[in-house]
Write a structure and sequence with these properties.
By secondary structure, this protein is of the alpha+beta class. The chain is built from 13 helices and 17 strands. The strands form 3 sheets. Strands 9, 10, 11, 12, 13, 14, 15, 16 and 17 form a 9-stranded antiparallel beta sheet that branches. A 4-stranded parallel beta sheet has the order 2-1-3-4, with helices on one face. It has a 4-stranded antiparallel beta sheet with strand order 5-8-6-7, sandwiched between helices. The longest helix has 20 residues.
């Protein structure tokens, strides 16, 4: 507490940090001149923890006023695939009750989803209504494409068929319970670039749920499939899954080129093909996804002033330019696949730490910090920066610049000068 009081008065002291990862985030923390604490029982001011630590230690940990941590206690309400779907369905029903079906239709940004084996019989009814559809199975708590497969026939998922755990003769069935999955209608008309499927990774920082305060990072990337898209080969993961962990195992994968486009490249490509009006509609739709998904868990998320969360959103665009939410990651990969990827993630994480403001240098009134724009602060935030280099002036006033020119160094220098600091970004 004494240190916190000194910090408020502006006195300097080295910030002590712990970090469970040894990748880009560890580099960023060290680059700020903070002191690393490696002892298990060592005192810390800032902790970049893994979700296992949150599950096992957080409830037994006393935290002083100034301490900061990179997860909310029940972050999984948004990031486990089954809970995300449940919460989004609940939000949609609530909006329909309060505002009608037209307003509720704005929540139709995630595919039809069921949890197996619990919803097996309900799913079968839906499956029979559209017998020629393709469906995708995903384990509820795995990442990087692990365990995912596509199917068109019920016989392919018979092990998830929900049956009574008691046999006819009254004895208990001793079979191992099957792993919980979600099954979703596969979006089989994705927007293609060069005949290849892609999805978009966006970064959203939440510093508070009550009130909801949300920052959106300008940069991100499109993750391309290594193989031309076709529905003739639903078993080929290189065609259908864009995860880098999957694509980098392809025989002709080039780690230097990778399978990524920067978000500004992608936005400029779409502008050239479809014009500004269609692209702005697409990106406003993505903004709606970010906010409505967070609102779906706002009342059940355990808000804690010590906590923040950097989410990795995965968005798919279909051939009509409609954005779809695929999943949300509480621990988006911070391991770089090449130098360009490292630079993006280093700057992203540097800006996260600037917003968390352990040094006490911000006024708290900022709408822009580095590459982050404040998009929601207990309500929509309106934009003052209506002229951007490298992108057309947007015809909207919401404070989001996703895929637009990211002059973060200039912004950080200007901000630090205004706060009387010479900190170098």
């Amino acid at each position: 507490k004494q240190w916190y009081q000194r910090r408020v008065r502006g006195e300097n002291r080295v910030i002590r940090f712990k970090c469970t990862l040894q990748n880009t985030i560890a580099d960023v923390l060290r680059s700020r001149g903070w002191q690393e604490v490696k002892e298990e029982s060592g005192d810390w001011d800032f902790y970049w923890a893994d979700v296992g630590w949150m599950r096992e230690v957080f409830d037994h940990c006393y935290m002083e006023e100034h301490m900061r941590l990179n997860h909310f206690r029940n972050h999984y309400e948004l990031t486990r695939k089954n809970l995300m779907a449940k919460n989004l369905k609940r939000l949609r029903k609530q909006i329909e009750r309060d505002s009608g079906k037209i307003e509720a239709a704005k929540c139709d940004f995630f595919p039809t989803t069921f949890e197996l084996p619990a919803d097996y019989h309900i799913f079968v009814e839906e499956f029979k209504r559209s017998p020629n559809s393709t469906w995708i199975m995903k384990p509820i708590a795995k990442s990087q494409g692990k365990g995912i497969f596509l199917f068109r026939k019920l016989k392919d998922i018979m092990e998830w068929k929900k049956e009574d755990s008691w046999k006819i003769d009254g004895t208990k069935d001793d079979r191992e319970p099957v792993e919980n999955y979600v099954v979703q209608r596969y979006i089989d008309n994705p927007y293609l670039i060069g005949g290849r499927k892609f999805d978009i990774r966006c970064y959203v920082l939440v510093t508070s749920y009550i009130p909801l305060k949300v920052w959106l990072y300008r940069s991100g990337f499109g993750r391309m499939s290594n193989t031309r898209y076709s529905l003739d080969s639903i078993e080929d993961t290189y065609v259908h899954l864009t995860n880098v962990a999957i694509q980098k195992t392809a025989p002709d994968y080039d780690p230097e080129k990778g399978c990524k486009w920067s978000l500004i490249q992608l936005r400029m490509y779409l502008l050239a093909k479809h014009g500004p009006e269609a692209v702005e509609t697409l990106f406003r739709g993505m903004d709606d996804i970010f906010i409505k998904s967070l609102q779906s868990t706002q009342k059940i998320m355990i808000n804690d002033k010590h906590c923040f969360e950097l989410y990795g959103y995965d968005i798919l665009i279909d051939e009509t330019l409609k954005p779809w939410l695929l999943e949300i990651n509480a621990s988006p990969s911070l391991t770089a696949s090449n130098q360009t990827d490292y630079d993006l993630k280093f700057k992203l994480l540097h800006d996260v730490l600037t917003i968390i403001d352990m040094e006490g240098k911000l006024s708290g009134k900022e709408k822009r910090v580095g590459g982050f724009d404040l998009m929601w602060n207990d309500g929509p935030v309106h934009c003052e920066e209506l002229s951007m280099e490298g992108a057309p002036n947007p015809p909207y006033t919401t404070n989001t610049m996703l895929g637009c020119f990211n002059n973060r160094e200039e912004n950080l220098k200007k901000m630090m000068r205004s706060h009387g600091s010479s900190n170098k970004a």
